[in-house]
Amino acid sequence: DSLKPSNFLRQVIDRDLAQGTYAGRHWAGHPADAATHQAGQPDPARIRTRFPPEPNGYLHVGHAKSICLNFGLARDYGGVCHMRFDDTNPEKEEQEYVDSIKDAVRWLGFSWDANGTSHLYQASDYFDFMYRAAEYLIQAGLAYVDEQTPEAMRASRGDFGKPGVDSPFRTRSVDENLARLREMRAGKLPDGAAVLRAKIDMASPNINMRDPALYRIKHEAHHHTGDAWCIYPMYTYAHPIEDALENITHSLCTLEFEDQRPFYDWLLDRLREGGLINTPQPRQYEFARLNLTYVITSKRKLKALVDEGHVGGWDDPRMPTIAGLRRRGYTPESLQLFSERIGVSKANGWIDFSILEAALRDDLDPKAARAMAVLDPVKLVIENWGEVMGSDDKLDECTAPVHPHDESRGRRKFMFGRELWIERSDYEETPPKGFFRLFPGNKVRLKYGHVVECIGATRNAATGEIETVRARLVPDTKSGTPGADAVKVKGNISWVGVADGIKAEVRLYDRLFSVAQPDTTEGRDWREELNPESLKVVTAYLEPSLASAKGDEKFQFERHGYFVADRKEHAGGKPVFNRITGLKDSYGK
Ligand code: ATP
Ligand code: MG
Ligand code: MG
Predict the structure, then answer these.
(1) Is 15 inside any structural domain?
(2) Is residue 116 predicted with pLDDT exceeding 60?
(3) How far apart are CA 447 and CA 399, in angstroms?
(4) Which of the listed residues 254, 256, 299 should we mutate to test ligand 1's pocket, taking the one with most ligand atoms within 8 A of CB?
(5) Which atom of ligand 1 is nearest the CA belonging to 253?
(6) Domain membership of residue 187 as a residue range
(7) pTM of the model as a whole
(8) What average pLDDT does the structure give for the chain?
(9) Kind of pairing, strands 80-85 and 466-474?
């Protein structure tokens, strides 16, 4: 059905489509959908998937995998992916998070409103239905109100290999249960006084089947439904219902939910028998969550990083949030490529951060304009410049391709002169073996410019630090002129003219954690694993072509790697660039 490499999920979908499992579905026409779907109308989508974040934080790179997977499968199979806020928990949910999530999904290149058959879904729209389904379960003898204390309930649940014990409230009559649930709903009971539980099997080997809770009492306003409710559905109860009402076909979740699948099926089977939901039912499939080396993907801990001031905010370029990756300079295409390359698997493991960086390089290499930059500048003075050129002030225009593999993108221009900025590390008084750059007596080419011969350096009398490197021009060696190659050199160094270079703030980001698998060592707090050198800010000089760089524009700084003009703080008069990544893999070394 698609040219993408197959995986176990694609095989399931291929099989379902071949067998017509989901053909001929129609809409149940529940109120939340009335705007787009009429009851009894056929559902034109071949498959439906969903991305269901809880709006309790910013999305991270693990969510990016889930977004690319769910929206990607829907796109590839002529289906629809539902953007759904799983807002069943009134606490910790905020509009800021809702907005940031929508922003992240759109930025990644997906939309939920493109073809008019999909719109924004939210679980809280189904609270009425969920409550009706709860009353139905009571009437069918499949649920009861339990008023044991939370401790007693926990103790009676049993453990692995140890069956649970029935609650004394398990044998209440239907009428008594209904009356009690209605009192819960009416706000007559305090938080924690009672829960509605499914009546399944307290001896089940699967603890999730031992009469799981369906509703709890929480006297708390909800960011969407306000004070309408003081009982809220549990995630395990809500999620299958959300999927069923939305005609989801393939409900993809991470492996932790594998043990919940029997309850997912139990609940939908019972609701189908009661005529509350349509057939065919959605099915749940589990895939391995993304664990990325040097990264923590837990919204709670990412929030702690922000709240405790370890980073500058949710979109700090060191954060693995989608907002952070975006500000760091990652592109939607690189994250999509990454998601495709790592694929989906049935077993948890760690993905090396270098795979993410490689996807970024593969995306940016053909796109990013090139530029020269000097990140640790020291001055190079060409002492015979005036002698050769006729005047010390004379400037000589040099050019270089905007992109080395695409001459149609034109050429950049910059000025060679008596004084140039070069990297401090490009000079050595006593060169180590294999060092071909500047040292007394050696000749190098200043890239796209002239060959110079180094004659030494001057030092600060007090500190001993090198202040200027001294050199002499070798005449008739300018790049691109006849005979320029007659003088052979082994070193070719980048530079920026003192006359036309742009001073800029450059933020050199490194990994946020210094251990490959943060937060996995017993007895060690992840805060102790933060890399104290994750950010170094330098004053650099950039070639003049970068004067017109716009916020969010990406470049390859020759020799140094990929950089982006900071989308928030870069301005024409005050350039700020972030290092996205180096030119070569530096992880796992
Ligand atoms: P966190 O633990 O970071 O809070 P979560 O799973 O609780 O994440 P949700 O908002 O519920 O966050 O997640 C929305 C969707 O994203 C879910 O379907 C979930 O399976 C998926 N998801 C979350 N984290 C990852 C991950 N690391 N890798 C792949 N998918 C993920
Ligand atoms: Mg969750
Ligand atoms: Mg979680």
Answers:
(1) yes
(2) no
(3) 10
(4) 254
(5) 20
(6) 129-232
(7) 0.94
(8) 94
(9) unpaired
